[in-house]
């Protein structure tokens, strides 16, 4: 008889940190954390061990937990994710908060490069009065985003578009974006979760500001007077972002810091 394995030991022996192991176990078995606490010392069922082992092995090889479970929470709601889209980051909640604080009642709002849809879906659910449009250049990402909008009950208009390409003649009171802003040789692209995320959603294959230059240059054409442009960027891109906004004639140009105290969002108002 092989020695019996308890649930506590199964998780401990996985070599994963506890929160990863818990997330994968719950996903693999359909049980919640309370169940696991109650059954900590029970003998593991063979079918539970099998599904958990295969997920744990993939995690040890580096696959992000969110891709293994197919889900990541953003602004308190569960979003479906796949390797077709960037995994929503908590820092991006800052962009959402700044947008919510600046969107006039009933405003038309645009999100450029929506990925999983976490930004436009959250804006619509937090503020049902807004008319939210979201674009992405990637068709698989739009399928993912539309699925999230439907599942969470958010009426968002999705359009396949290379930034403003498919939006000729349209204007908005507020434009937001979390574009690919990582510089092409940034070593982080070869580390951690980023290795498994879509490269086109992370880097511009240039100096990191290439997409921001296009967005900032074209945004005034699509903003109503007084409308805000707000976008996320890297910790060292605050000065560069403000310079772009000022050169394009934006007023009230500023940068906001995230919870870690790093420059994370910049924006300005169309004069
Ligand atoms: N915030 C992400 C990271 O640094 C990058 C996301 C992006 O390029 N928009 O990991």
Automatic annotation (TrEMBL):
GO terms for molecular function: nucleic acid binding; peptide chain release factor N(5)-glutamine methyltransferase activity. It comes from the Bacteria. It is an enzyme of class 2 (transferase). Substrate binds at residues 178-181. Gene3D superfamilies: DNA helicase RuvA subunit, C-terminal domain, Vaccinia Virus protein VP39. Pfam families: MTS, PrmC_N. S-adenosyl-L-methionine binds at residues 113-117, 136, 163, 178. Residues 8-70 form the Release factor glutamine methyltransferase N-terminal domain. The keyword Methyltransferase applies. Residues 92-186 form the Methyltransferase small domain. One of its GO terms (biological process) is methylation. Keywords: Methyltransferase, S-adenosyl-L-methionine, Transferase. Its EC number is 2.1.1.297. It catalyses: L-glutaminyl-[peptide chain release factor] + S-adenosyl-L-methionine = N(5)-methyl-L-glutaminyl-[peptide chain release factor] + S-adenosyl-L-homocysteine + H(+). HAMAP family: RF_methyltr_PrmC. Methylates the class 1 translation termination release factors RF1/PrfA and RF2/PrfB on the glutamine residue of the universally conserved GGQ motif. Belongs to the protein N5-glutamine methyltransferase family. PrmC subfamily. This is Release factor glutamine methyltransferase. It comes from Formivibrio citricus.
């Amino acid at each position: 008889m092989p020695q019996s394995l308890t649930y506590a030991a199964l998780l401990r022996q996985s070599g994963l940190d506890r929160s990863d192991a818990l997330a994968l176990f719950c996903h693999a078995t359909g049980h919640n954390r309370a169940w696991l606490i109650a059954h900590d010392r029970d003998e593991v069922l063979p079918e539970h061990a099998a599904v958990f082992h295969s997920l744990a092995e993939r995690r040890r090889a580096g696959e992000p937990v969110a891709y293994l479970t197919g889900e990541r929470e953003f602004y308190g709601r569960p979003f479906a994710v796949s390797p077709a889209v960037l995994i929503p980051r908590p820092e991006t909640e800052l962009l959402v908060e700044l947008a919510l604080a600046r969107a006039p009642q009933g405003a038309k709002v645009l999100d450029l490069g929506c990925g999983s849809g976490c930004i436009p879906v959250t804006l619509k659910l937090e503020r049902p009065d807004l008319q939210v449009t979201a674009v992405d250049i990637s068709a698989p990402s739009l399928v993912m985003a539309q699925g999230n909008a439907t599942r969470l009950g958010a009426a968002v208009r999705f359009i396949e578009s290379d930034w403003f390409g498919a939006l000729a003649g349209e204007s908005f009171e507020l434009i937001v974006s979390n574009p690919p802003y990582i510089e092409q040789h940034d070593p982080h692209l070869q580390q951690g979760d980023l290795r498994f995320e879509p490269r086109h959603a992370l880097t511009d294959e240039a100096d990191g500001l290439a997409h921001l230059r296009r967005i900032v240059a074209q945004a005034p054409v699509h903003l109503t007077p007084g409308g805000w442009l707000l976008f996320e960027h890297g910790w060292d891109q605050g000065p560069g972002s403000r310079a772009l906004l000022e050169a394009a004639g934006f007023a009230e140009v500023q940068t906001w810091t995230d919870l870690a105290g790093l420059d994370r969002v910049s924006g300005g108002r169309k004069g």
